[in-house]
Design a protein that fits this description.
Length: 218
């Protein structure tokens, strides 16, 4: 059942936690930062939450104006998406992720969604601003993303790129490991855990933009 618990505290922090402080609520918001998702997609990205509890969180977030239900244009199926109010949580979630990066890892089996990895990539990557713009097609966990490096920044969008310099397919955990240690790419390719088609140097640049970031001069 959706919860109506409250801290009964007038502080803005407490009132915010009344809306998004229940377990799994902020992780639902995280999964919707990059693209709307169906219930089944959210359930797949958050494998340790029950269907009933996820449905409760979605109802609460919708009731509080954080998310809304819409229709996927190409498929006509119901999706959940952030409202303008919900979108305002993005800098808070990104700051929370930066703060939590040094926290201990959870015990296995631990989940890691494609959205989580891509949010980290967006925030951590600092490619050479003088390098030419490039476009990568990433297939993570069965979903395709367009990753563009340009002007010293990495942009991530859902869906197929119009053109791509390179295509990479991997599981989110494998791609995360590559972002931590680009030197493991040849072994991952040899093991079949990663597939790369196109200009591999673009992938090398993307990975090293995280481990050897170009200074941010802004």
């Amino acid at each position: 059942m959706p919860t109506s618990r409250s801290y009964r505290d007038s502080c803005g922090i407490a009132r915010a936690l009344d809306v998004v402080g229940e377990r799994w609520a902020l992780l639902v918001v995280r999964e919707l930062l990059l693209t709307p998702q169906r219930f089944s997609e959210l359930r797949h990205a958050l494998p340790h939450v029950s269907s009933n509890l996820l449905a409760d969180r979605l109802r609460e977030l919708e009731h509080n104006g954080v998310i809304r239900r819409g229709q996927a244009p190409a498929e006509g199926t119901r999706v959940y998406e952030l409202t303008e109010r919900g979108r305002k949580l993005e800098p808070i979630l990104r700051a929370l992720g930066d703060w939590g990066i040094d926290a201990p890892q959870p015990p296995p089996p631990a989940a890691l969604s494609a959205t989580s990895v891509l949010i980290f990539l967006q925030g951590a990557a600092r490619p050479d601003p003088a390098a030419p713009a490039t476009s990568c097609r990433l297939e993570l966990d069965g979903r395709v993303w367009t990753v563009r490096m340009a002007s010293g920044r990495v942009q991530v969008q859902p869906g197929e790129p119009a053109t791509a310099d390179v295509s990479l397919r991997a599981e989110p955990t494998t791609f995360s490991a590559l972002l931590s240690d680009p030197a493991t790419l040849p072994a991952a390719l040899a093991d079949g855990n990663v597939s790369v088609v196109g200009d591999r140097s673009v992938i090398d640049r993307l990975l090293h933009a995280v481990t050897d970031p170009w200074p941010d001069l802004n």
